Every structure is written in structure tokens, then in C-alpha cells.
């Protein structure tokens, strides 16, 4: 074999090696790019969390905390899209009106890298119990039972319990109860209703004074008998 043939084969082998090397490198390059892109995607977002109760109550002070470990970060918080100013990463607030759900949003921005992150949490909103009162008669007599009802502003709903001044609580009656005079131990009694929020267990109570009217029975039975005889004679005269 002459030198010309050897040089051709050597050249072909070198060219083939270059082609294989280029193919190998081109196959690796997309994988490297994907890894770098994924790293950039993860680095562009901070892992932010919110510490908050599961529910808040109208008129009761509440607070939420935005969590991210950062030495030089800017925190921005909002309630239902309305930007609220807090003290650092803590926002204290008191709701004045009821809405079914409150959305808390926290945005954190790293001042050094300009990387930011956001987190949101929905809180159930409760109301009451408030404005409680008892409706029913102030005076009752011994001839029948009387109905009383208890009313309170409450969200989502309230459980009710009843008692008189020196008796134990009675539950399971709902917001209405019937009272008969023989259940009252004295001519005057105090009826008490307690409304308890089903979620927060906060409660309020209302009272109502009830007076029992005792029939004015005659101290002389013979007078009552005379009245009855006269009524009988009068009715008999009409019949005849």
C-alpha cells in the first residue's frame, strides 16, 4: 500500500472523528441549555408563605404574617386587592363589614437581586354574635304556654341555649322556646338566652323579665257560689 492511500485513509478517519465529535457536542448542548433555563426559572421566584388564622371575625382585631427569611427585602400586603400598610412583614387589621371570604396576598421583593415572590391565602370571615334580644310577652298567666324567640346577628350561624335565673342551661331548642307558668317558681322570673357562634365559639347573652299574673281568686267562696247561681237563674229565665 502506497503512501497516497495511507494519507487518504488517515484524512477520512480524521474527518469522521471531527463529525462524530461535533454530533456529540451538539447533542449535549440542548441539555445544558435546559438545565440553565430551569435554574433561572427557580431563581426568579422566592418561596413565600403566609401565617394566618383560618378565620377572622368582624370587629375583632386580627393579624397575618408574611414569611420569608431575608435581610433586605420589601414586603407588600393586600386585603381583597386593596393594598394595606403593615409593619414590616406583619399586617394588623380589623374588619368593619362582613364578606364571605377574605383574600390576603403578600409580595416579597429582594432589594439586592430584584427577585420577588408572592403568596395568597383565603380566610373565612365570621360575624357576631351581636345585637341579641329576646322577643315575647312580658306578662303571662296560668292558662296556657307562651312562646319566646331569641335573635342575634351571626355568620355563618349561631347555636342557642336557654335558662331561667336559677335553672341549668337547656340546649337543642333552637332560637325559640315555649314556657308554661308552672315552670316558673316565683311570680317574677328572668329568662336568659345565649347565642354561640358555631365556628369561633364566641357568645353573648340577653335577658328578659317575665311576670306571672295569678288569678284573683275570691277569699269568700260563698260569694262566688252566689254569682254562679244568679248566672244559672238568668240563663234559665231566657230559656223559658
Task: Supply database-style keywords.
single chain, 240 residues, alpha+beta, Immunoglobulin-like, 2 helices, 15 strands, disordered N terminus, disordered C terminus
Summarize the structure in words.
The chain has 2 helices and 15 strands. It has helices spanning 3-43, 221-239, and strands spanning 49-51, 55-57, 62-67, 73-79, 82-84, 90-93, 101-110, 116-135, 139-141, 146-155, 158-164, 170-171, 176-179, 188-197, 203-213. Strands 2, 4, 5, 7, 8, 10 and 13 form a 7-stranded mixed sheet that branches. Strands 9-15-14-11-12 form a 5-stranded mixed sheet, with no helix packed on it. A 3-stranded antiparallel sheet has the order 1-3-6, with no helix packed on it. A hairpin with a 5-residue loop joins strand 7 and strand 8 (116-135). The N and C termini lie far apart (162 Å). Residues 3-43 and 221-240 have low confidence and may be disordered.
Q: Strand-and-helix sequence, N→C?
A: HEEEEEEEEEEEEEEEH
CATH superfamily of the largest domain: Immunoglobulins
Average pLDDT, rounded to a whole number, is 77
* CATH-derived architecture of the largest domain: Sandwich
The level 1 CATH classification of the largest domain is: Mainly Beta
Rg of Cα set: 42 Å
Described by strand count, sense and barrel closure, the largest sheet is:
7 strands, mixed
Gap between N and C termini: 162 Å
- Reported by name, the CATH topology of the largest domain is Immunoglobulin-like
What spatial form do the alpha-carbon principal axes imply? Answer: rod-shaped
Strand tally is: 15
How many discrete domains? 3
Helix content: 25-40%
> How many H/I helical runs?
2
- Helix and strand composition category: alpha+beta
Strand content: 35-45%
Regions with pLDDT < 50 over 5+ consecutive residues?
3-43, 221-240
